[in-house]
Amino acid sequence: MIRRCSLPPTGAAATAATLHRASVPMLETVRLRLRAPNLQDLPQWTEIFTGPASHGFGGPFTPEDAWAGFSSYTACWMLHGHGLWTVERREDGEGLGFVHLGLEWCDDEPELGWLFLPRHQGQGYAAEAAAAARAWGLELLPGFVSYVEPGNAPSNRLARRLGATRDAAAEAAILASEGGRAHVWRHTRNKGAA
Prior knowledge:
alpha+beta; three-stranded antiparallel beta sheet; Aminopeptidase
């Protein structure tokens, strides 16, 4: 069943949506473009959040949960001045996944995160996109973190490769307050990406 909230607007509302998306900075790398998300990106976001990979971050989720997350991360642009980018290949515009610099309800500080479709993992796209988002974010903010599941070896390697350092005190605080474990990787202006 197609939900009305997932259908692109038409008429004056479509024009307004386009103008709002234009305020989101577009970042380009050698292979990638990070751009404002739109409703045509929702199926990819939903695929990530309802699929097996989502189990590592509390899933699987329902399509309704995916919509709520997509809306929340997109709204961060208006509320905090940073948020979700859709990552697409410059060569052909194919959507590959997402990078965000956002705040969730329980976050104490902004988080740099990356979510890619399984078929686009292991090709260096996450590293390229996250490095661009990190550089942009450190021009805006003094620092932020990446929360990574301890067993997610590729994402832990990527955080280290980006120049982040583990924050044992923040990890202990998460364990004490939530009873869960996460590696907390801290990105600061004085740490350069490798």
